[in-house]
Each structure stands twice: as structure tokens, then as C-alpha cells.
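User: What would this chain look like folded?
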Amino acid sequence: MTAPASTGTRTWQWGALGVLVVLLLGAATRFLEKGVPAWFEGSALAKAIEFPIYAIALGLLGNAVLTAAGLRDRLADGFRTEFFIKTGLVLLGASINLKVIVTAAGPAIIQGVVLISTVFLFTWWLGGRLGLDDKLRALLSAAVSICGVSAAIAAAGAVQARREQLAYSASLVIAFALPSIFILPALASLLGLSPQVAGAWIGGNIDTTAAVTAAGTIVGENALAIATIVKVTQNALIGIVTIALTAWFAFRIERRPDAPRPGPAELWRRFPKFVLGFVAASVIATWWLTTVSADHGKQVIGVANDLRTWFLILAFVSIGLEFRVSSLREAGWRPVSVFAAATVVNVVVALALALLLFSDFTAD
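Assistant: Here's the prediction, encoded as C-alpha cells.
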């Protein structure tokens, strides 16, 4: 009886050390996020690099060091990617005011539904044509059509994807989002788009909220306002897509011919429960903001957003720590091709919808 207890104690201690590593790298990420723009004042690149870049890079660096030292697998229990990201997404819900979306951004809802449906189905189809695993197809489709890493995380819970597939999808999102911060504002200027159309294009196209904010800021305040509304609308649709993926995989993809038809209990078991927290946080925040002053509400939501950033930093650090190079070799060139082609489709369809729906739109 002594040996198992001793083994359990050692496992707990290694897990605690793993959490400490994540926290230290998270603090380093926060330090770089705030310090680099100050050190390189005036550099557009330094200002544009968002915390996911630093977090994943430091996680990968820590991964390499711990692997070389033979400690990575022992500390792996402390790399709580799932817990950190789900908590961060629930906090994200607090910043989504459903009332604003419904009353001030009707075109954003139309754009979100049409754009997500078109890009998701195209990505799913192309991934199938190139023979991608169904779970990886789901992650890539959700990531490129909705809101990047957050959508990939939600999809991963719905289809029970492997961590390597999630890490690969997250890496593709970051790789494509960073250049978009500069390319889309430049194209918007070249095409002579109005701030409203440019903002809708950016919000519907770039996969991460942080990158949308950066690109919208480059174009201007009006563009940023529209970009934020459009991106928030797409974020709010995560739950609907997650429910659809949960049902599709339970009833079609993974169901054996000789197995009984899965019932509501199976759907509930597979459904990522944090999505309910995400929606609840949005509803509660929407109601609560109507009961307090604007300044007080902004201050409290700001605290929630800061906590969200911390949890997402820890999640991205953990993704880097958990990532295995072997997953890149296993995935090969096909996922990159699918994501790149879907991004092009996203660019074109989002621009057409932005021109159609936002040419005469005002944020008032």
C-alpha cells in the first residue's frame, strides 16, 4: 500500500511543478506583451504582435527545454490547456452584449450566419476531398469560419479531437492571423473602402478577436467599432455551431451501423458544458450593464476582460508546452492547403457581404 501512495504523491508534486512552469511562462508573456511596444516605441510590428504569439512561442521554447531535460512528460499533468481555455471563454461571454448585437447590428447577424455557413461548408468539403481526418476537418472548419482558436477549442470539445489536432489548428490560426493585421487594412485603403465596409470585412475575416482589434485600429475608430460588432456576433454563434457538430458526430460520423441510435443523454455527455457558461455570462452581463452606470460597468467588465486574457495566456502557453513536432509531420501539407484555400474564400465572401450589407450602415 505504501508504494502506490508514494507514487500518487510524486505525481501530484510533478503536476504542481507543471502548473508553476505554466504560471511563470504566463507571467513572462504578460511582461513581453506590455514591454515590447514600450521598448520599440514607434514600431508598428511591435504594437501588432498579440499575446498569443508570445504565449505559444514561450510554450514551445519551454517544451524544447523540458524535453531536452527529460522533464516534459513528468510535468504534463500541470499543462491544463482545457481548463484554462474554457474558463477564458466563459469570461469572454461577459464582454458580449447581446442587446447591442440585436439592436445595433442586424447586418452583422446576417453576415455572420451567411459567412460562417459558406466558409464552414467549403472547408469541410475541401478537407474531405483531401482526405483529412473528420475531427481535424471540424476544427479547421470552425476555426477559419468563426473566430479562430476559441472556435477550434469549442469544436474540439464537441468532436472529442486529439490535443495534437487542436495545437495544429491553433498554430495555423495564429500563422494566418498575424499577416492579416497588416494586409487587410492596406487592401481596404487600396480598394477605397469606407470605414464601415472595411470594419465589417476585417471583423468577418480575421480569425482572432485580438487581431481584429489591431487591424481595426489601424483603419480607424469607426472601422474598429464595426469590426468589433461583427466579430462579437460571430463569437456569439460558437454555441450554435458546437451543438450542430455535437449532434453530427454523435449521429452520423461515429455511429456504428449495429449500435443503437444515440439519444439526448449521449448528446449531453458530448456537449462542452462551458458553452452554457459562455452564454450565461453574456446574458447576465447584458442585463447587469443596464442596472449600473456606464463608467462602473466598463470598469467591472474591464476586470473580467483582464482575467480572460490571463486565462487565455495560460492556455496558449500550455498548448505550446503540449505540442509535439510529430503532429506536424503527421498532418503534412494538406491541412495547410485547406486552411489557406478557406482563408481566400473567407476574404472574398466577407468582402462581398460587407459591401452588400454595410455600405450605408452607421454605428449609431
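Residues 83-358 form one domain. If you want, I can go into more detail on any region.
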